[in-house]
Specification:
Elements lengths: L4 E6 L3 H10 L9 E5 L8 H6 L5 E4 L10 E4 L5 E5 L2 E5 L11 H12 L3 E5 L8 H9 L3 E5 L8 H9 L4 E3 L1 H12 L21
Parallel strand pairs: 1-2, 1-7, 2-4, 3-4, 7-8, 8-9
Antiparallel strand pairs: 5-6
Helix pairs in contact: 1-6, 3-4, 4-5
Length: about 200
């Protein structure tokens, strides 16, 4: 079981953002990814469409399946996507932040299951979904990345995430994938320095 997990949340404009992010990751990426994209654009078939743009394996998440490195698990329409240590869980509980799937639900489960091994990524979108979950990942010792709102199709969701916690990196979209590769390193080990104090400035690179 991988000790690391990348949890990604996106909303309006997320399909184009996910194409860029996943396209920057090698097929040998040493951790699983769990993705919540608020449905509606393009809706069902998101995993199949994204597969065209990345060497990773992209698939709709299935309840209780194992989480494997180099695989991106996409929340299917109408289901919350949660992660447990080493596996996926799906839920039809009520919407959270007006959404099912909800980014907060994914992020909070990632924080609880993976602790310091979780990496949360908030991409373009409207609303505040993901802000509370990203703060929880940070609280549990995980890493946090937010797309620079100035580079997002819609900046409201990134701005809400930035208001919720002191994140580790605010990055333009095309730098998020390379940052994830640097974070995990060729063997899956975290090779990037951690911020040493809460008052440290947000890292930009």
């Amino acid at each position: 079981m991988s000790r690391r997990l990348v949890a990604v949340g996106a909303s309006f404009g997320g399909f184009d953002a996910l194409k860029v992010l996943l396209g920057a990751l090698p097929g040998t990426f040493p951790a699983p990814l769990a993705i919540v994209q608020h449905q509606g654009s393009p809706g069902a078939g998101l995993a199949t469409l994204l597969q065209r743009y990345t060497p990773l394996v992209v698939a709709d998440a299935e309840d209780k399946e194992d989480l494997l490195p180099g695989v991106a698990y996409v929340a299917p329409p109408g289901y919350h996507l949660l992660v447990e240590p080493g596996s996926v869980a799906l839920s039809v509980d009520p919407p959270v932040s007006h959404a099912r799937p909800s980014i907060d639900v994914l992020f909070e489960s990632a924080a609880d299951a993976y602790g310091p091994g979780a990496i949360g990524v908030v991409l373009t979108g409207t609303g505040q979904d993901g802000a509370a979950g990203l703060a929880r990942i940070k609280l549990r010792g995980g890493r946090t990345i937010v797309q620079d709102p100035a580079t997002a199709t819609r900046g409201a969701m990134p701005r809400a995430a930035l208001a919720s916690t002191i994140v580790d990196w605010i990055l333009p979209l095309d730098m998020i994938g390379p940052r994830l590769v640097k974070l995990l390193g060729p063997s899956g080990q975290d090779t990037a320095p951690r911020l040493v104090a809460p008052e440290s400035p947000v890292t930009r690179s």
